[in-house]
Amino acid sequence: MKIAWGITGSGDKIIETVELMERLEGECDIEIVPYASKEGEVVLKFYKLLKRVKGVFPGYKVERSANAPFLASKLQLGKFDLLLIAPATANTVAKIAHGIADTLLTNAALQAIKTNLPVYIYPVDQEVGEVTTILPNGKKMKLHVRKEDVKNVETLRNMDGITVLKTLDEIREVIACD
Questions:
Q1: CATH for 76
Q2: What's the pTM?
Q3: pLDDT-based confidence at 103, cuts 50/70/90?
Q4: Total count of domains within the chain
């Protein structure tokens, strides 16, 4: 199985996501090709994870525009078995929920749906209230998830062609890795 894995600019769950990517590629019969948004790369650098991701996943690519690299085409032509966006920021979720395809990952998701390629998204903002995230220095920071962000996640849940994952652990089920 070959997975296009989108990384957005979410610091929340980025460490856990990279660790999961490494475990899955090591334990499962899959190939992961990470595609970072511009802000996704900023966050990977901020958390000192960029060199690690590039080292483990030599196919790593970063957004230059909504169509560069031309991920949407690769998805539509069947070069990947699925598109997974994890972690997904509230911004990315809102754009996909409202059909805005102006970034690499929002364009890729919306174009993949048109060809019935499975799209899985793990949004970090799924429930209204406070969440605790870990900063690059290891300190904890509390964030407030807004009802508007949760509403956009619900919109995604109701869209044809998109599966919203409640937890990162559900990714293992998606790729059928036992």
A1: 3.40.50.1950
A2: 0.93
A3: very high
A4: 1
The structure tokens 């769950």 sit at 13
Q: How confident is the model at residue 158 (pLDDT cuts 50, 70, 90)?
A: very high
Judged on CB neighbours under 10 Å (0-12, 13-18, 19+), 120 is buried
Element (H, E) at 72: helix 71-76
- Nearest Cα neighbor of 35 from 80, 93, 85, 81 is 85
Q: How far apart (Å, rounded) are the C-alpha atoms in residues 165 and 85?
A: 10
Sign for the CA dihedral angle at 30, 33, 37, 40 comes to positive
Range of the domain at 13: 2-174
Cα dihedral angle (142, 143, 144, 147), rounded to 10 degrees?
-140
Handedness of CA 49, 50, 51, 54 (dihedral sign): positive
